[in-house]
Amino acid sequence: MAVIPLLLVAACASQPRFDTNDTMLSVTPEDAVADMDRLKGIRVLWGGVIVAAHNREKTTRLEILGYPLNGRQHPVTTESPQRRFLAVKEGYLETADYAQGRRVTVAGTLTGTQSGRVGEATYTYPVVRIEDSHLWPKAESRRQEPRFHFGIGVLFGN
């Protein structure tokens, strides 16, 4: 009988965080820049690593290096990046939390493109108006392998 609550919790934990109805999941930031006239106004679900966060008078703007999402809608940073994009949120986001290097997933509407610079290069960013977002926990430090093992035999190591 105690197994049923455990299964329910596990089932809930494995469900995606965002409602993807009316969301164009196949559209990437690269696709948006290439065909913004057709894609402007659609709802997308993108994620990646925050490059920069800036609070403006009435909005917060995140510059994000986009990565593909896995089934849990988490950015897969071991894959090749897709393209940088700008995510704009009405109101205030704490930039100490939404700091460079943090992983984030955003759902929102494509509003257009914006020109900018990445280093010395001119760059065209697709822009998403954030309707919902999830800031993923900071990466845990890598666990060190134990330096000793129990067993029968001889152990050689550094």
Quickly list its features.
five-stranded mixed β-barrel; single chain; 3 helices; mainly beta; 38% strand; 13% helix; 158 residues
Describe what this molecule looks like in 3D:
The protein is mainly beta. The protein is 13% helix and 38% strand. The chain has helices at 3-13, 29-34, 36-39; strands spanning 43-55, 59-67, 84-90, 103-118, 121-135. A five-stranded mixed β-barrel has the order 1-2-3-5-4. It starts with a helix and ends in a 23-residue tail after the last strand. The relative contact order is 0.19. The model is unreliable at 6-12 and 141-145 (pLDDT under 50).
* Series of H and E elements: HHHEEEEE
C-alpha-based Rg, rounded = 20 Å
How would you write the strand order of the largest sheet? Answer: 1-2-3-5-4
Number of strands: 5
